[in-house]
TrEMBL record:
AMP-binding enzyme C-terminal domain segment(s): 548-633
Binding-site positions, Mg(2+): V554, H556, V559
HAMAP family reported in the protein's UniProt record: Ac_CoA_synth
CDD domains reported in the protein's UniProt record: ACS
PTM section of the record: Acetylated. Deacetylation by the SIR2-homolog deacetylase activates the enzyme.
Protein name per its UniProtKB record: Acetyl-coenzyme A synthetase
Annotated family: Belongs to the ATP-dependent AMP-binding enzyme family.
Residue positions, PTM N6-acetyllysine: K633
Enzyme Commission designation: 6.2.1.1
GO biological process terms held by the UniProt record: acetyl-CoA biosynthetic process from acetate
Length: 671
């Protein structure tokens, strides 16, 4: 694989070679294959008529108020219209229709609080709660089309809040509870939200951690900035801790719901009505508001959930460990499982609270049959040792999913053997916030799975690996992952910025969606994902932008310049490593051990404040210079070599080739 840009990070060649030597393969057992929802014929069915196939999925998996007659309108490419003249409601599909079909008593959510408090919510309960919340939102003046920001921990109310917005046609924008007040503020401003739903706090590692103060701070008036568009803040009471209260603006969730009617007529919307905006990191400093609409998104979310996880709603207990603040929580906690009428577990806390067997205890307690989690979590559990899961009965598990980053074969094998009892198929699912739903994954009853590979585009999806000139690479070749045909759950744009949408995804290769990932085809034509080839990092499965962290760093008065790279890390996949040039006397101060510690602390806290604790650099290296090309672009590739303790690669395109020596020399000196 060759790059025209000097400073584009390259996937690790060593890990690539390891992957190419991976030859193990695990076909499904005959018993699993025989009962699977997705049979081998699904591929042929989809390729015989892709649009007819999707139309059939949309018809079978969703209930439409007015059925669509048109499947895809691509005349406004790259903005697609799927099922454009159909009318439906997402919350009705997720909740009401199951009650109407006689499944009101089925458990929708087994909620497990971190401290062990539990709550069982049936579909009938959910219908009442969502209807009440929808009425409460309407009473607070939220109308179809208004944006609502949701900033909550993992609670039943979080799912209810999202569905209540969907029920009244108000697009939600969930902001991960780990993001800072500043990050929340900029997302509220960009979405011009009318209302914020939050909580007093949540429980994290045994302690109540407040959330509402961040909302208060995010809504504060600031000189030189326009007044906030937010009129009300709905506050869920979770920890019972003290909260500051702004009269006329703040409203308790429980009070608003108590007085609300349990009946609510869903607001029927067009298939292309915006369902949500979700902000994600891109290659520039400003997060992108990824826009998803209703009909196509729900169709593909439901289709993938049914076929990739082999969901049997009557008998399965499904658990996706993702937070609703990420796309995985949107598609595979809130929407797909409920659309499909599943019973699922929602867990508030962390895997090690109060002990490191917590997840496996939950699997045993609820008899979880399908588990969907991230490689970083698996690697962490590996580190803790297999004697911990061995203390629990995990025999109920029959399908295991992985998402968020490439899974290394070693973690894959451990997941299969220790968690899956050497029998449960693993589905390594590749997709993105932008794709809305799973795109590349084995089918558990069909595909002979390979440790570390997402393998094949799902029936109905067309993916390829291309070279610099957009030519499909032959088997055995590597290049860039692209999607060559529109798909139902594709993003419909970046909120308020159509040009950026075209530029970011559609300009690199004519007519192709460029995902930003490097990939490789093996001799069977199976796809192996190799990580990002742009300035996006993947830390514990969370997307972080190098540029965004760099701008956070330079916004601190002691920093003159900053460069951030993602360095390989055994547990988190990548770790944030920052190189900073300090201003004037601060540089001298940082040369002493105490001064250096202080700089580290100050800047790490500053990044946590600007973005959130997840973006904190693991290491901050104070340097005298940064390596730049003649056009002034930072060559992160060389800094990654330093951060990963490798010999520094080809530096001939640097404007000043002695810079790398300066940097290495400075770092070699103690302190
Ligand atoms: C990476 C998460 C390899 C990839 C759903 C992608 C993966 C980015 C996989 C999207 C996988 C996700 N194998 N890499 N199975 N799944 N990725 O938007 O780099 O948070 O571009 O969506 O995660 O991250 P996002």
């Amino acid at each position: 694989m060759r790059n025209t840009e000097d400073d584009v990070p390259q996937p690790e060649t060593s890990s690539l070679e390891n992957l190419l030597h991976e030859t193990r393969s695990f076909p499904p057992t005959p018993e699993f294959a025989a009962q699977a929802n997705a049979q081998p014929g699904l591929y042929a069915e989809a390729s015989a008529g892709r649009l007819a196939f999707w139309a059939q999925q949309a018809t079978e998996l969703l209930t439409w108020k007015t059925p669509f007659t048109e499947t895809l309108d691509w005349s406004g490419a790259p903005v697609a219209r799927w099922f454009g003249d159909g009318i439906l409601n997402a919350a009705y599909n997720a909740v009401d229709r199951h009650v109407e079909a006689g499944h009101g008593d089925r458990v929708a959510i087994h909620f497990e609080g971190e401290g062990g408090d539990t709550r069982t919510v049936t579909y009938a309960d959910l219908q009442r709660e969502v209807s009440r919340a929808a009425n409460a939102l309407a009473a607070l003046g939220v109308e179809k089309g208004d944006r609502v920001v949701i900033y909550l921990p993992m609670l039943v109310e979080s799912v209810v809040a999202m569905l209540a917005c969907a029920r009244i046609g108000a697009p939600h924008s969930v902001v991960f509870g780990g993001f800072s007040a500043d990050a929340l503020r900029s997302r509220i401003a960009d979405a011009e939200a009318k209302l914020v739903i939050t909580a007093d706090g949540g429980f994290r590692r045994g302690a109540a951690s407040p959330l509402k103060p961040a909302v208060d701070e995010a809504l504060e008036e600031r000189e030189g900035e326009p007044a906030t568009t937010v009129q009300h803040v709905l506050v869920v009471r979770r920890t019972g801790g003290d909260v500051a209260w702004t009269e006329h603006r703040d409203v308790w969730w429980h009070e608003a719901l108590e007085s609300a009617d349990v009946r609510h007529e869903p607001v029927w919307v067009d298939a292309e009505h915006p369902l949500f905006i979700l902000y994600t990191s891109g290659t520039t400093g400003k997060p992108k508001g990824i826009l998803h609409t209703t009909g196509g998104y729900l169709t593909q979310a439901a289709y993938t959930h049914r076929n990739v996880f082999d969901l049997k709603p009557e008998s399965d207990v499904y658990w996706c460990t993702a937070d609703i603040g990420w796309i995985t929580g949107h598609s595979y906690v809130t929407y797909a499982p409920l659309i499909n009428g599943a019973t699922q577990v929602v867990y508030e806390g962390t895997p090690d609270s109060p002990h490191r067997g917590r997840w496996w205890e939950i699997v045993e307690k609820y008899g979880v049959t399908i588990l969907y989690t991230a490689p970083t979590a698996i690697r962490t559990c590996m580190k803790w040792g297999e004697d911990i899961p061995a203390q629990f009965d995990l025999s109920s598990l029959r399908v295991l999913g992985s998402v968020g980053e490439p899974i290394n074969p070693e973690a894959w094998m451990w997941y299969r053997r220790v968690i899956g009892g050497d029998k449960a198929p693993i589905v390594d699912t590749w997709w993105q916030t932008e794709t809305g739903a799973i795109m590349i994954s084995p089918l558990p009853g069909v595909t002979a799975t390979k440790p570390g590979s997402a393998q094949v585009a799902l029936p109905g999806i067309v993916a390829d690996v291309v070279d610099d000139e957009a030519h499909s690479v032959p088997n055995g070749g590597g290049g860039y992952l692209v999607l060559s045909e529109p798909w139902p759950s594709m993003l419909r744009g970046i909120w308020g910025d159509l040009e950026r949408f075209k530029d970011t995804y559609w300009s690199r290769f004519e007519g192709l969606y460029f995902a930003g990932d490097g990939a490789k085809k093996d001799e069977d034509g199976d796809i192996w994902l190799l990580g990002r080839v742009d300035d996006v990092m993947n830390v514990s499965g969370h997307r972080l932008s190098t540029t965004e962290i760099e701008s956070a760093l330079v916004s601190h008065e002691i920093v003159a310049e900053a460069a951030v790279v993602g360095a390989a890390d055994d547990t988190t996949g990548q770790a944030v490593v920052a190189f900073v040039i300090l201003r004037g006397e601060h540089a001298d101060k940082a040369a002493t051990p105490e001064g250096s510690d202080e700089v580290q602390l100050t800047l790490r806290n500053h990044v946590a404040k600007e973005i959130g604790p997840i973006a904190k650099p693991r290491r901050i290296l104070v340097v005298p210079e940064l390596p730049k090309t003649r056009s002034g672009k930072i060559m992160r590739r060389l800094l990654r070599d330093v951060a990963e303790n490798r010999t520094v690669g080809d530096a001939t395109t640097l404007a000043d080739s002695s810079v790398m020596d300066l940097i290495s020399a400075g770092l070699a000196t103690p302190g």
